[in-house]
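U., I forgot to send this yesterday:
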Amino acid sequence: MVATGIGGATLFFILLWAFTTGANDDAPWVPAGLAAGVLVLVAVGARELVGRQSNARRAPYGERREGTSGETPSNRTGSRTLSRNTAALKTLQKMSSEADSGTSPEPHLDAYHTCEEYLTGTEELMRGTEISRESRAALRSGQERVRSMQRHHMLMWARVAARQITQDAEQRVRLSDKIETALRGVSVIKTAQRHYPDEIELIESEDAIREFIASVKVAHWVELAERNAFRGQFKRAIDRYHDALFYLGRESLREELRIETSTRIGREIELLRARLRISRSGFDPSATDSNKRDRPDNDRKTVPEM
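Result:
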């Protein structure tokens, strides 16, 4: 525009000088001004035309570059979503590995809750924002992996915690302490079953703990019966064995173990009943055998020789 102004002014003065030196023109500045104005208009029109053509050539290249570099708002949101999803999965994988390498149940429970937070967050993200199909597919894939990881850690937590509680119950002395501690293990299994009610491993674990409780009760009454029998209290020992049979039929035990235990207790009851009848009759076979051994030879009857 500066060059156009200078050129127009130069043309004006040149034409004005030329027309002034001539005698035929009374108003030389009119044609000089018209010529300079036409020059300025032509220059301005040419600049506008060239500028539009240049913008038209640059526009497609700019759109392609923006599309390939992911600079649109939706693409920028999708790239941030994918990066955050990848970082969250890496964090969960690290936490899962650390929990599996330890022996404590608490890291497994922490990993389970972290997986739950991830699943909740991704569901809200997919419902609340417009994301690309690629980002949505990546989130779905991550959710499947995390659900599998979540189930693994819940089962591991229940398994390790129940095993530790059962071992603790075995070390207790009193019957009530054993049962109370073992019931804590049942509570752990029930917590896991609220999330995975059809899991076979949890059902078997609960059955194993309840069988342990039943065996503890039966063993308690058998031990009392053996103590009474050792002290010669046969009637009380028989009653204790009947108490053991009562809990044996009431509690949850495997059928083969129930039959084996009831058969053994039945034999003990029959032996005690026999000893009880002998003690009531006043006959002591051991004393009779001892008298026979201690009797002199001359007191024994001799059989005449034929």
